[in-house]
Amino acid sequence: MTYFPDEVVEHIFDFLSSHRDRNNVSTVCKAWYLVEQLSRLRVFVGNCYAVRPERVMARFPGMKCLTVKGKPHFADFNLVPHDWGGDALPWIETAARCCPGLEELRLKRMVVSDESLELLARAFPNFKSLVLISCEGFSTDGLAEIATHCRGLRELDLQENEVEDHGRQWLSCFPDSCTSLVSLNFACLKGEVNTSALERLVARCQNLRCLKLNRAISIESLIKILARAPNLVELGTGSFTADHRTEAYQNLLNAFYKCNSIRNLSGFWDAAPRYLQAIYSICSSLTVLNLSYAPAIQVNDLIKMIRHCFKLQKLWVLDSIGDKGLAAVACACKELQELRVFPSDVYGTGIAAVTEEGLVAISSGCPKLNSLLYFCHQMTNAALITVAKNCPHFTRFRLCILDPVKPDPISNEPLDEGFGAIVKSCKDLKRLSLSGLLTDKVFLYIGMYASRLEMLSIAFAGESDKGMVYVLNGCKNLKKLEIRDSPFGDAALLENVGKYETMRSLWMSSCDVTQGGCKALAAKMPRLNVEVINEREESDEMVENPSDMHRVEKMYVYRTLTGPRDDAPDFVWTF
Amino acid sequence: MSPPLEHDYIGLSELHSPAAVAVAVGAAEDGALNLKETELRLGLPGSELPDRNDLVGSLSLGLLPKPLVSGAKRGFSDAIDGAGKWRLAAVGGRSEVDAGKGGALFSPKGENCDGQLPALGNAGKGKDAVAKATEHERKAAGQVGIANGNERGVAPAAKAQVVGWPPIRNYRKNSMATNPPKNKEDADGKQGSACLYVKVSMDGAPYLRKVDLKMYKNYKEFSLALEEMFSGFTIGQCDSHGIPGLCDGLADSKLTDLLSGSEYALTYEDKDGDWMLVGDVPWEMFTDSCRRLRIMKGSDAIGLAPRAMEKCKNHN
């Protein structure tokens, strides 16, 4: 057998970019394990409770970039209690001790305190990049720490976090010596920032390529900022509104005219139509456009703008775009790969804005479409079958019909056949979210055809345990299964217990799983944490000793090397 | 961090899960439930409570293939935070919830619900009804103090929402529901559902005023208020030019008289940024789309006012 020296093996491993590939090569033999272990720079931990930070850092002492995810996905929709867990501090503390060379940290759905941010800012001299997605627990004080102490910071990317506003001075904390920023995204901050400090910061960071402003930034400030950063590639525009003076429009037009490099636009929180015209000059080079926070933009202005965006690959809009607007997108954006249509009325009521027609139009006009998130009021099997035929390349398909158990309005049938067509046609489908009226049949199709499926979200679907069993037995690459309000019980849960060790996690809420079922699962599979989340009023005596017959409201099961976690709050029981 | 607030309401949580009835009874999660909740019933959702019968037609759940057990198996716990903030009641608030708003379950089809829930059918007014209903809810549940309600965008009690549905991230919900904390207040009309302040400028006046459009029910009241506000600036022009019986909404208003008799025209800027003449559209539509007002005078106005007169004449 050919023998390569370690350096050669390591060099070969450098070409492996995915975690999975690296995980796989490390299992080939001990020699490869050692080489891989010492050379891995980017570490991904999909569930912060699956493994202890110490163990991760002992295995990968050369770690430069760490990604950790905390709460289960349904936490996004208020299904996970506020203090369930996902604290980032243990990870940061351990990294400070064991991997002080850390350069990048990416956290998603975790609780990050100001204390954690302060530690992060002071403990890692080479720290370059902080990305926080859907996190909470920190304030602008923590951001001030980062700004003050992270010399050489390149990236501060805050995406959709809940940040407490303790004042506007954090931005001024970037020292005058800070010139290294490449990416700054504070769009999710609610409060005002010191705009002159921002302008000076932008002016001295000549490498700045991504800047996403928050809603408090007006057009007047935007104009000044753009003047100092004409090389931006990604821009979040701030509120995009001003007093109605014509000079603002002209200055804006000029400012955008000079920004030839912008490829990614977002923001437009309060955009008035007259200002939208100022960006037409850059529309034709845009590849990413996010208008999903811009309810003020009317359909006709949207269509006028979209017509210029023929290179667009990613589009996020509100459903006020309507089927008519989507037809315009289908005509203009032939390169479109990802489309997300969000409800403009976030409480899911109101007048139907997009229907299956819009989706069909997109599918026939945009053959490269591979990622979809679509909130609509109705869907038909026929439409889904057409979409499946037109776009066989879907990797992510998430459909949310706002009325949770709505059937095909034309045939009154469940949507089993439609989704069945999707999974049959889209062989590379990795992520699927179902909605509408669905029986067990759709799960039979999923189990049969969705062999590459990794994440499945089920809500208000199915008729019996068989549905869940089809999925567990069929989808061999399934990693995350999340189910709510569906009639799956203990029999389904216990049918294929070994499966859960091949998956990252299983979430079931408002289903028919009982306490006894959870206990049984935990007993059979010691390397799973079976967490039952009980939220009760204090006065409820049932809390003390619920019987095994008692139905469990929320259950979260995940494989782990650590056993029950020690930071579980009172209302979380691990069996 | 104060957690976002969302409430699990009557609605799907009790309707979807075909749990064994025994379990349903056993799981009296939230303590005090009224007997209605714990009553065992089998039937299609929406059919169990007499005061909801009129909504059955508007529920798409009527098409479910099997009967689902209703009943109290689900509490109305605030799923977000275990520290038990106020919850919609099982505590007896449910009937008030229904009575107060005719609790719409999933009312996704605006057109279906319009007949029964005029206040809720229109998405643009959803928030108003929401706030008012929320007020009822608070009284009903007998609890107070939703922390940071404005910050977080209070969930619409009126629509009997299921927790976490539709699956939209909190961040997005909050962004769409709240106002930006700007210093300069543009009259974007999204100030929250309780009031709708817009700027009113009058040509030649040294300063502007602000009015709350929600305080008035029709053009007549509104124009009276405006007239009072701006009477100081129109001395000598508002007295005798009255043309009585001109047209319905504006007929008796002195402002109309003022406008038709003089060189003023009342205009407003709508959501699209266009300047429109006040009075063309129904009052509700006007309040929805009005961002600011301007009382134009002089040569600008002359072309506008006569049209208003003609239009009014046609109504007679």
Description of the structure:
The complex is a heterodimer of chains A (575) and B (316). With 575 residues, chain A is α/β, with parallel strands linked by helices. Chain A contains 21 helices and 23 strands. In chain A, helix 16 runs parallel beside helix 17. The longest helix of chain A has 13 residues, at 246-258. Chain A is globular and about 70 Å long. The model of chain A has no long low-confidence stretch (mean pLDDT 92). Chain B is 34% helix and 9% strand. Chain B is elongated. The longest helix of chain B has 19 residues, at 123-141. Chain B starts with 11 loop residues before the first helix and ends with a helix. Chains A and B meet through loops of A and helix 2, helix 6, helix 8 and helix 10 of B.
Q: Give the strand order, joined by hyphens, for the main sheet of chain B.
A: 4-3-7-5-6
Main sheet attributes: strand count, strand direction, barrel closure of chain B: 5 strands, mixed
The share of residues in helices of chain B is: 25-40%
Regarding quaternary structure, what we see is: heterodimer
